[in-house]
What does this fold into?
Amino acid sequence: MAASGPGAIHPLEGLYEAKPDPVPVVVIVGQTAQSAIGGSYRQEVDLATLFKDVAGDYVQLVTVPEQLPNVLDRAIRIALAERAPPPS
It folds into this structure.
């Protein structure tokens, strides 16, 4: 887990380390408030672009709490099946 903004960059090293090893990984990072996305608010980082190389096709933005159980379930299933972050 990591905070939003620059803090969201910190898990990248762990993901790149896990990629060649058979280690399942799920990372949860914070994001700028939905109403502020796109406004360069508080050092906003484009997380989808940041993680796409190492997290493959499964980078999701949860905008309402009801989405979280399904997104987290799928992320865990992919991590366990691939034994690493999903391939790019």
Q: What stands out?
A: The two ends are 21 Å apart (CA to CA). The chain has a mean pLDDT of 78. DSSP finds three helices and no strands in the chain.
